[in-house]
Amino acid sequence: MELTQRPRRLRVNQAMRNLVSENVVQKESLILPLFVREGLTNPVSIKAMPGVVQHSSESLKHEIDRALALGIGGVMVFAIPEIRDEMGSQALNPDGILNKAVRDIRTQVGENLIVVADLCLDEFTSHGHCGVLDQFGRVDNDRTLEIYGEMAVLLAANGAHMLGTSGMMDGQVGAVRKALDKASFQDISILAYAAKYASAFYGPFRDAVESQLQGDRKSYQQDPSNIKESLREIQLDVEEGADIIMVKPAMAYLDVLHAASQVVNLPLASYIVSGEMAMVEAAAAQGLVDRERAILEILTCLRRAGAQVICTYWALEVAQLLDRK
Ligand code: PBG
Fold first, then answer.
1. What is the mean pLDDT of residues 296-304?
2. How do residues 97-123 score in pLDDT, each as one tens digit?
3. Could you confirm whether 196 is annotated as catalytic?
4. Which runs of consecutive H residues, i.e. helices, occur in the chain?
5. How many C-beta atoms surround the C-beta of residue 50 within 10 A?
6. Is the peptide bond between 249 and the residue preceding it cis, with omega within 30 degrees of 0?
């Protein structure tokens, strides 16, 4: 054979493959989502998410110590209150579980990792929707924005570096940016869940936060069939002042991430959601895939598709794996 072009020459050994590798995962780019539940004395494990727990304040502290020691990029805080009501009013309680957890974490970490607070009402409402309802039971966009604005200022005052706007209300990034700026929190950044789809893959998360949701979120989260709509949502969030743009879920949405990377001059984030994690864990538990390889492959492919930041429940474990390599 007279082959001039032999791509295999660049794959002869690991050193060669490393030399020409186009995308690497770094632990500094990983964000670990954390759940903290009000009133717990011991952590409670979550169905379908091996290794993930609802934290007590005590176990949360240990987990943050591990995150600091391993050197990941940040943590993202979700809180489960004892009391839920129509308005999600515990979200605006300065001593409510979310504000308290954010305050404690920030005191513990200082500037050594980024504290992202989830900014949404679904954990706090008795109906489980991401906003408050109007008299017809529909999610009231603009009243919800007012609450998001107040929530943003409180979370910033309690030490969040960054707010994750995950509610998919129209204008949420602009409303949050305006409220923050008005309260002199110009340096608090916004991680915009710009393209967030109404996905079946959020199932285990809803167990994790004991979601009260009946029905679905299809009147605010996006239809999985659409991508132009994502580009529009992303464009709006950029115009409204987002600092990082997120596409969610991850694995079935790589085309959206890639399309975003072609048009957006902001860092992009991807979130490997609970159901995606559960699929890998279930397959690995049955011996169907090599768990560690599968995890690293998924993260590498997210990088390749355009993500700088990756939110993953595997963040601490991946940091350990990368240290070992
Ligand atoms: C809602 C929120 C959800 C997730 C993150 N934020 C659930 C939803 O939209 O129903 C899902 C994350 C996951 O599945 O890991 N604030």
1. 98
2. 999 999 999 999 999 999 999 999 999
3. yes
4. 14-19, 57-70, 97-109, 141-157, 172-182, 203-208, 228-240, 254-263, 274-285, 291-305, 315-324
5. 16
6. yes
Amino acid in position 196: K
Please check the confidence at residue 325 and state whether its pLDDT lies above 90: no
Is 90 exceeded by the pLDDT of residue 10?
Answer: yes
Query: Rounded to an integer, what distance in angstroms lies between the CA atom of residue 188 and that of residue 190?
Result: 7
- CA-nearest residue for atom 5, ligand 1, is 166
Task: Read off φ and ψ for residue 230, nearest 5 degrees.
Answer: -65, -45
Q: To the nearest whole number, what is the mean pLDDT of the chain?
A: 97
Residue 2, burial from CB neighbour count under 10 angstroms (0-12, 13-18, 19+): exposed
**Tokens in use for 116?**
């992202």
Which residue from 54, 80, 121, 122 has its CB within 8 A of the most atoms of ligand 1, so it is best to mutate?
122
Statement: 21-246+312-324 belongs to CATH 3.20.20.70: yes
Q: Provide, for the chain, the percentages of residues in helix, strand and coil under a 3-state DSSP scheme, each rounded to the nearest 5.
A: 45, 15, 40
Joined tokens for residue 105: 């974490």
Domain boundaries defined on the chain: 21-246+312-324
Tell me which of 27, 182, 196, 325 is the catalytic residue.
196
Tokens 């109906």 belong to 127
pLDDT tens-digit series, residues 188-204: 999 999 999 999 999 99
Q: Quick check: 48 pLDDT over 90?
A: no
**What region does 40 belong to: left with phi over 0, alpha with psi -120 to 50, or beta?**
beta
